[in-house]
Amino acid sequence: MASGSEGSRRPRGPCAWCVSAVKWIPVIFIVTIIVWSYYAYVIQLCSLTVTDNVERVLYLIGYHILFAVFMWAYWQTIFTEIGRVPSKFKMPRAELERLEQAESEEAQRQILERFAQDLPITNRTVTGAIRYCEKCQHVKPDRAHHCSVCGECVLKMDHHCPWVNNCVAFTNYKFFILFLGYALLYCLFIAFTTLSYFISFWKGDLQGIGRFHILFLFFIAVMFAVSLVSLFCYHCYLVLRNRSTLEAFRAPIFRTVADKDGFSLGKYNNFQEVFGDNKKTWFLPIFTSLGDGLVFPVRAQHQPSSYNSMGSTQTSLGDGVTFPQRCVDEDTDTLLGTRQRWVEEAELDSPPFSSHHSALLTASHGTRAQDPASV
After folding, report:
1. Distance separating alpha carbons of residues 82 and 147, to the nearest angstrom
2. In this predicted structure, what is the pLDDT of residue 211?
3. Whole-prediction pTM value?
4. What is the mean pLDDT of residues 150-155?
């Protein structure tokens, strides 16, 4: 996985440590609310207020299941390392000096084109040039962006979230989605199970200081549920469209045109790209996303291709290995359909996604290329 990068850490001084500490304040705030909600629900509601034993047991079992998966997903979102750009995208010293001494933008463009000709990239700038990060001094992989908060480029960056003090990106995007989903279920469960006791409070049937915990617990659960539902639904929409938040606001630019749906392979395949191809692990906060965060399947018209006399489409990674591209046959399939076709040098029946990204880099040498028109 590209998260184990060769990215260098910047030296930190006292001011940098103070800034880092301040960044944890939103996380501490959320954790404090969660800890208080646990006390209010388990102790004040279930232990001291609920009188029916069956109701108490059911409430406690349901609550602790949701609490466990919710906190698991939150932990994973916070502490999963971001995906960093590998060293092969970094400009060598000699090329970097030539780039800095170039007298024109066209000269700089040619230097970047030569350096990036063997890199698996399809995205471009508005002017059609190679995307280059001057701060990190490397070519940006597809869907990677520089995060000003993290101070480095991040693979498939979605956004930087202060509530998790981390970039939401390729390595933890699944965890972030699950965190939003389980947080919403957690709040809804609390709201529905405390509703009757909230009504009893207004009727004057509840006594003791614990009733105020139940009152505020209900209000806070409803408040967070309202804010979470829109955010969760929006990110579900992005998953099904195979877009990041950044790409939703500014469409990725390919060699020919900007296309918001350039990475979309159909709703089900887009979902698999984030959650994996094993249904048993879809809703568990463990990493199952497909790929390495560097190379992403794209629509056929955006593929960096070289065409041979047989009409087959091949993409080289620069090491003699042919990367099989996933093509959408738009004559028979819609963008959101599930029936896709793969064009590969030796095999035409390989599965759309593999649970091991290394399988995508397997090629048969010395075999006759297949004509995609004969598929």
Report:
1. 11
2. 86
3. 0.77
4. 94
State the pLDDT at residue 166. 96
Burial of 38 (0-12, 13-18, 19+ CB in 10 A): middle
Mean pLDDT (whole number) for 258-287? 95
pLDDT at 20: 85
Radius of gyration of the chain (CA): 25
* Mean of per-residue pLDDT scores for the chain: 81
Query: What does the block give as tokens for 331?
Result: 């004559």
Residue found by looking up tokens 């028109």 in the block = 373
Q: Which structure tokens are listed for 142?
A: 């597809």
Burial of 30 (0-12, 13-18, 19+ CB in 10 A): middle
Catalytic residue among 161, 167, 187, 327: 161
Could you give the CA distance from residue 255 to residue 127 in angstroms, rounded to a whole number? 10
Q: Which long-range contacts (CB under 8 A, 24 or more apart) does 270-274 make?
A: 270/239, 270/240, 270/241, 270/242, 271/239, 271/240, 272/352, 272/353, 273/242, 273/297, 273/353, 274/173, 274/174, 274/177, 274/239
Name residues whose C-beta falls within 8 Å of residue 226's C-beta, 6 or more positions apart in sequence. Answer: none
Q: Is 18 a catalytic residue?
A: no
Assess whether pLDDT exceeds 80 at residue 344.
Answer: no
